[in-house]
Predict the structure.
Amino acid sequence: MMAAALRVAETPERPKSLTEPRWVRWSLTAVALVFLMVFLLVPLAVVFSEALSKGWRVYLASITEPEALSAIRLTLLTAAISVPLNLIFGLAAAWSITKFQFPGKNILITLIDLPFAVSPVISGLIFVLLFGARGWFGPWLDAHDIHILFAVPGIVLATIFVTFPFVARELIPVMQSTGTDQEEAALVLGAGGWQMFFRVTLPSVKWGLLYGVILCNARAMGEFGAVSVVSGHIRGLTNTMPLHVEILYNEYNFTAAFAVASLLAFLALVTLAAKAYVEHRFHEH
Amino acid sequence: MSIEIRHLSKTFPNGFRAVEDVSFQMETGSLVAVLGPSGSGKSTLLRMIAGLEIPDRGDIILTGREATVLSARERNVGFVFQHYALFKHMTVRENIAFGLEMRKAGKEEIRARVDELIELVQLQGLEKRYPGQLSGGQRQRVAVARSLAPRPQVLLLDEPFGALDAKVREELQEWITELHDKSQVTTLFVTHDQHEAMSIASDILVMNKGKIEQEGTPLQIFDYPATEFVAQFVGETNYVDSHVVEPELAVWGPFKYSVNGYNVGQKVRIYFRPNDVYVTSREESLQVKGKIIKTRFQGPIIELLIDVGAEKPVVAHLPKGLSIASGFVEGRQVFVGITGFHSFPL
C-alpha cells in the first residue's frame, strides 16, 4: 500500500523547454518545505528540547522511574506479541487471497481494511462490548476469573486488531506481481509444500514482508485510541507509553511527559530509518 | 513410448472447454511440437502432463506408468515456462541445483551435475549471477538447464521462446535442436509460431478449440492438411468458394479444379498457397488472364496481388529474381495458373 504510494522514482532531467517557470518550481518546493517544518520538524524539536529543558538528570529520572519503566515494558511486550501474530495472519491472508479462488474473497479483502476504516476508539469499544462486565463474554469470564479488559490481554487484543492490515496489505500486491510461476516451477522440480514455501515463496516476498512488519511495529508501539479504551489506565500495570505520556501531561508534569514522548519519537525515528533501508532493498529487487 | 495420452479432457470452472478428448503417443527420444492459436488448449494440455492442472477425464501415461493421479513432484518431468520462472533470489548455480536438492542428491553429485549442465547450456562464467543480471536468452538457457538437472523422463516447454526477440529466438531454436540431439530426452513443446514448430520438431500436433486437428511431420502438415483449419492456419493461403458443376469438376470464376468425392451442385472451399500460384507473361494451358494490382517486397520473395476478375485478388509468391527478370510490376497484364490446391466441403 504505502510502499507503492510513497515510492519516488529518480526525477529525470527535463529539457528547459518543457519545465515550469522558475518561480513556480521554487514556490511549490517552498510550500512543501515550510509545511514540513511547521508540522513535523518543529514539533519534533519541541519534544526533544522540552524533554531536556531541565537537564539530563531530570530526563533520565523521568524515563527510569518505575511507572515509566513499566510503561516501556508493556509497550514492548504488546509489540512483541502482536507483531508476530499479525505476521502469521498477514502471510496466511495474503497467501490465500493471491493463490486461491474461493467464495467470499472480496469480502475478506474488504474486511482486512476494516481497522483502517474504523476509528481506533471504536475498535477499543468493540472489545469492551465483547469482554466488558456487561459484554457478551463478560459474565463467563468473570465466573472463571479471567481478566481481559483493563488488563494486558485486552491491550494486546486491541493492538492486534488495529495493526492487522499492515502485513497483509503490503504482501498482497507483492505476491500478486510475483505470480505463481516460481512456485509451480518448484513443484515440478520436486519440492513439497513446505519446501516451496520456505525456499521460494518466502524469500521472494521477504522485503515486502519486512516492510509490513516495520509499519505494523510502529503502529503497535504508538497506538493510543483503542488501547486507551481497553486499558483502564492503571499506573504501573496497564499503561503503555502513549498512555503514560498523556497521564503525565494531564498532571502538568511536562518535562517527564516530553521525556517519555521523546523516547517514543526516538523509536519512531529508528523505525523510519529501518523502513528507508528496507524500502531501498525492496525496490532493488 | 514416453508419453501416452488417452481421451484427455479439461473444462475450466468458468465453462471454457480447454481440452476435449485428446489422445496421442510420443516415441521415446522424439521432439514434438503442439501448434495452435492462443486459446486452443495447447498450454493446458502441457500443464496437465506436468501435473499443474488436473484433467476432468482421461489418462496420462509417462514411460509406461499411470501418472494421471501423481502430483507434479512425483512425475519427474522437466517444465520450462514462457517467462522463465527462475528463482529470482537464487544464483544461476542455485537455480540449477534446486531440483537435485529437492530429490536429495549428494553434495558432490549436485556439484558435478550442475557443472555439466552449465557447460551443456554454455553459461560458463555466469554461475554466480542472479537472473536479474542475465539477458532473456541466457535466462531461458538457465531455465532449460534447471529443468534438465534432475534427469527428467520428459521435457515440456511452454512457448519457450515467445518472449524473446526474433534474432535470439532463432539462435535458441537451433540450440534446442542441438541440445535435444545430445541429450535425447523426449521433448514436447508448445508454440503458436508455425515456423518454430516446422523448423524444430520431427512431428507436429496441430490443435484448435481443444482438439487435435492433425498429427504428422511438418511436410505432411504443410502439403496435406487434413482439415480446413490446418489448411488456413499453417502457411499462407488463398481461399475461394467454388461449386461443383459436373462430376469431378469445380469452378470458381475462370478457374477449374478437378475434385472428386463431391456431388454436382455442392459448394466447396478451395485453398491454394501463394507459392502454388505460377505467373507467366505469355499464356500457357489452364491459365487465366489477370492484372498485377500490387507488389510487396518481402526479402527473398516478392508478393503479387493479381486481379483475375473475381471478387478477391489472388496472392502469389515469386522468387525475387524471377519476378524482377520477368518485369512483373504493378499494372502489368499476366497469366495465372495453380499447381496445387486442397478442397474442403462448405
